[in-house]
Each structure stands twice: as C-alpha cells, then as structure tokens.
Amino acid sequence: MLLRAENLTVERGGRAIVNGVDLKVGRGELVGLIGPNGAGKTTLLKALIGVTAASGAVFLQDSPLEGLSANERARRVAFLPQDHEIAWPVKVREVVALGRQPWIQNSCFGDYARGQIIAEAMARMGVETLAERTADTLSGGERARVLIARALAQMTPLLIADEPVAGLDPAHQIGLMEVFVSLLREGRSVLVSLHDLGLAARWCTRLIMMDGGGVVADGPPAAVLTAENLRGVYGIEAYFGKADGGPVIMPTRLSPK
After folding, report:
1. Mean pLDDT of all residues in the chain?
2. CA-CA distance, 171 to 182, in Å (whole number)?
3. What percent of the chain is modeled with pLDDT above 70?
4. Which domain holds residue 145?
5. Contact criterion met (CB below 8 Å) for 2 and 27
6. Do the Cβ atoms of 182 and 100 come closer than 8 Å?
C-alpha cells in the first residue's frame, strides 16, 4: 500500500474541515478525488503529505508519516499544488531539475540518472522546447506543464496532484491524463483532485467523492458517479453515455429544488 490514512481530521476555528477520513491508494491506481468547492479536497491532500496539521494517522508505504524526514517523504510522494506561479527568472530546465533534489541530498553516489530523467519528464509534458526559456516568461498553461514535469522528475511511487488540469486546454488535459495512465504501467500511482467529472469518469480507475469534509462514496467511477450522488452532492443533473469505448458524463442543469 503506497498511502493509507485513518480517521484523518483537520479542524480550523473549532470546525472540522476534514472529518474522520479513511482512504487507501495501492500500486497501479489512478484515484480521482472529486467533490464541490469547499468539500475539503485540498485540505485533505495537504494533510496527507504533512503540510497541514491533522489528527489521525497517515502511512506512506506502511511507514508513519510523522516518522519520516522531509527528504524521505519527498522520495515517496511528489505533491503538485494548485498554485502554478513561478515568480523568479529561472530557466525551465532548472525548475524541472528541482524534482531531483530529494535524490541528490544525503547521497554519496550522486544522481547519475538526473539528466535522462529530467529530459524524459520534460518530453512527457511537451515542454522540452521551453528548456532555455525563463519560467517567468511562460503562459499559465506552460507554467502548469513545467511544474507537472518537475513532479514527474521526482520519480516517486506516488504522485498527488491538486487540480492539475486547471488552466490547461482540452488537448493538454487529455494528454496529462494519458501521462498519468502511463505511470500506472510503471507500477506508480496517482491521487488527483478533479472538478471535470468527464475526465474523472473516463480516466480514473477509482473515485473518492467528498462532501462536507467527509467521504460520501469510494469505488469504481460507475458506482460513484450516479445520478443520485450528483444530485445529492453537486445539486446537478447530468447526461450519461458512452463514446469510443469509454463513459461520457456531462453536467446539463441544476437539479430541481
């Protein structure tokens, strides 16, 4: 098991933002974390990596999170936050290379695969032609892809990404989901928060639906993205269909009150 959380709770101002969440992510899974704004998704993801203080327990590869050094955590899980800002004039190649830092520190042998891994990560995200550009000159979508490449270069068994498709055009959104699927074939896993229910239905192997700080459904996309759940959690109606051998879900209107 790459990630396990037990009774994870985050309180702020006497209110539970995340309330008693249990979840697991095994090898070869693309787990989509879905739910409306304010459901607690971002807070949960930050608690899972120790950025946000929480009660309960988190285990990375069966090791308690609190017992791992920052460097050890960074070798087990890469985190891509919502914020895609890069405020300093650093070359794109150097930004992506930051993903190799956990493997350089405390290693007397160096990081011999560094150059190849960085090149492969950039190629996966289609940013190799931007290598010599400074990051502060990039568009929002380009910055997002560069930061995803940095996370890929970290070469961790688990990647956690918070709304990584935000700011990407449809082609790059689909391309990113294809990259995530390719990681599964390498025995790695991805936990990704998504607002696009169509992408979640079509690409994820499993979905975790949150509402009000808790998990309301966890299972295969077809079992989670039901008309009843969409009405109860999102307050919407949706079209359900199939195309090119996969599911299609498109929100159509607000549910009658």
Report:
1. 94
2. 17
3. 96
4. 85-156
5. yes
6. no
Kind plus residue range of the DSSP H or E element containing 226? none
Q: And the tokens for 27?
A: 């090898």
In the listed set 108, 141, 156, which residue is the last one of a domain according to the structure?
156
The answer on pLDDT for 106 being more than 60 is: no
Domain C-terminal end among 113, 129, 156: 156
Residues 11 and 136 placed together within one structural domain of the fold? no
Q: How far apart are CA 43 and CA 157, in angstroms?
A: 22
In this prediction, residue 112 carries a pLDDT of 62
- CB of 143 within 8 A of CB of 131? no
* CATH code assigned at 32: 3.40.50.300
Does residue 57 sit in the same domain as residue 143?
no
Alpha carbon distance 81, 3 (integer Å): 18
Q: Cα-atom radius of gyration of the chain, to the nearest Å?
A: 19
Give the mean pLDDT of 209-237: 97
pLDDT digits (tens, 9 = 90+) for 51-96: 999 999 999 999 999 999 999 999 999 999 998 778 788 999 999 9
> What is the DSSP code (8-state) at residue 255?
P
| pTM for this predicted structure | 0.94
* CA pseudo-torsion sign 175, 176, 178, 183: positive
- Give domain status of residue 217, yes or no: yes
41 shares a domain with 164: yes
